[in-house]
# Entry
Amino acid sequence: MKEVTHRFRAMNTDVVAVVVTPDRRTGAMGALRHVEMLFSKVEATLSRFRVESELSRLNRWGGKPFAASPLLFAVATAALEAARVTEGVFDPTVLSALVAAGYDRSFEEIPPERADPPLPSTGPRPRWQDVHLDALTRTIVLPKGVGLDLGGIGKGWTVDRAAERLGTFPGFGIDAGGDLCCWGTRADGRPWTVGIADPRQPDRDLAVLAVHAGAVATSTVVRRRWNRAGEAQHHLIDPRTGRPGKTDVLSATVLAGSVARAETRAKVALLLGSREGLRFLDEQADAAGLLVLDDGQVVSSACFPKVSGAP
Amino acid sequence: MATARQSTRRRKAPVRWAIVALSCVATIGAYRAIVTGPPPAHAAPPPTQAVVQPAPTLNEMIGQIQGQVSGDGTGTTGTGASPTFRTRGS
# Structure
């Protein structure tokens, strides 16, 4: 067996895809290039930073039925389902709040210090329950003034589709900026391993998981940060306030059966804070998580694999 | 007794019938393409090699955990070998 690796840049992050294959490599590279094209297509459709993307057109459509492509409709459906099962703590209609907080452009273009006036204590309230999806006509109706941000769940959804594409290989791993999925083993029979980075010292791992099959995703407030009128802002909007979430959790890492599920549960656990976040994770039948708190504690949900000592 | 001309016609007959049959098939195919038209622009291409794996249970997902996560937050690194992937949020 051999490993064939393909690296590319998409969705403003580095993507690595590896497949395990017998010696004939031509099928492997074709599949990996298909994965790259998939990422490119999803980004072109769902990027809110591209004026010509289908999502941007939807967000400008202003209250009228919008005939969506299968891709946009599928991701929007997944996002609203995640909002439903999390009772709105995950909410894709946070676009106005994100822009109001200062995340109005691709993150690398945001100045570290914005001279805008301070934000009021509450901001635009998301309204996921007012979004209407019609599966028969594949149309989406957004309330006027409401826009969707599908960045996080869109990346996770894409990794899940890529995993379906690579599922014919004996083993594979896909890592899209830390949202990742693994299956099977490496070419030499060893398991895929995933390091959980310490948000306080990103070059150090808190633990290393051996993943046989499944997805891992992490949400953190320490990476995408900027200052506005001297007050720190970050990209994880709490739908309950319409403002960047105030939480004692620095990062939340979740294991689940799909990347989209891991990503949304990680975000919710972080926004809820350590006490409610752990309770939320314990209620998930198919997910488990580890939280790093701002006081230095590291806590995990009941089903998170226990670690004991180094081998 | 058949003449040479008649023998030639008999040998060529199956070929002629094959040509006629192929022509009919081509004509029927062209007719259907005209009537049904091209596939809708939004029609998703059929999956070729997509495989949907059954969702694993948590126990099936994770094998041995390497390293130690300590309650005081210091933690330790893993085995020293770099993991295949790292998750740190984005």
